[in-house]
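pipeline stage [seq->struct] | target=2-phospho-L-lactate guanylyltransferase | organism=Novipirellula artificiosorum | residues=280
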Amino acid sequence: MPIETIHTQSPGCKRFLRDMQNAEPLREFTQTPPSTDDAQWPNTTLVMMTKYPTPGRVKTRLGCEIGMERAAELHELFTRHLSDQLASAGDQRVIALTPDSYLARFEGDLDNLDWQLTGQGGGDLGDRMARLFQTYLNEHRGPVRVVLTGTDCPLLTDREIADAAEKLLDNDIVVGPAIDGGYYLIGIRSPWKDAYAALFSEIPWGTRDVFTTTKQRVSAAELSLAVLPLKADIDTTEDLGRFCAHLEASRHSSPLLAELCDHVNAILGVGESETRETHP
């Protein structure tokens, strides 16, 4: 799905654009600088879960305000940006797509050869996450660390993935909590244990209780846990406004951020000259 400027703005999108002009960056959007160390982290597999960008099926909360087409384009943009941003993270990188029926179409659009592509399979979110962990934890005979993330935190860097993997040297689980009560990253070290299954079964996905419930399950199973810094997902127009303000403030720090900023502005119908006047 191409990224292009949309001139016809819904009332919700117009309100968002007005609010965005006065938005302040959240510290939780602060991006850890990319690692300058080219060394790979052995036995670490990064799995990025994403959905095919069908309007009305991705980022629907955001879509109710800015339009489902725009929300789907942002989702696609975040997936592509992360595939570039994390292209050197770990020693194996996998994009796990749902629904599986779109694998062939997505593969034709995927121009980043640093990633493998697989389907998530059936079941709820927990079923799919557990299946991915079992698959990649059991793929190698030696010690393996699997780090799983989504696409709602597009400023994740290879250094942050490396930090998560490092914490798995001394802990069974690593989790990156999100402001909305969920989490943006979870990692597990091999071997797969039956106790891990409880982390993904009957979890109230999509609620503010996800991280708290996960911590309780970890404690009940007597597993060790490391917690990463808090970050903000981009699920609402408020989240998006703060994210855009952060992008404008830091666009000159890297070419990838500048490109991401320009594409976000294009999707939201913000002209370059308007952006410069609003965000010096």
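stage status: PASS
auto-comment: Confidence is low (pLDDT under 50) at residues 1-8, 33-41, 272-280. Residues 68-85 form the longest helix (18 residues).
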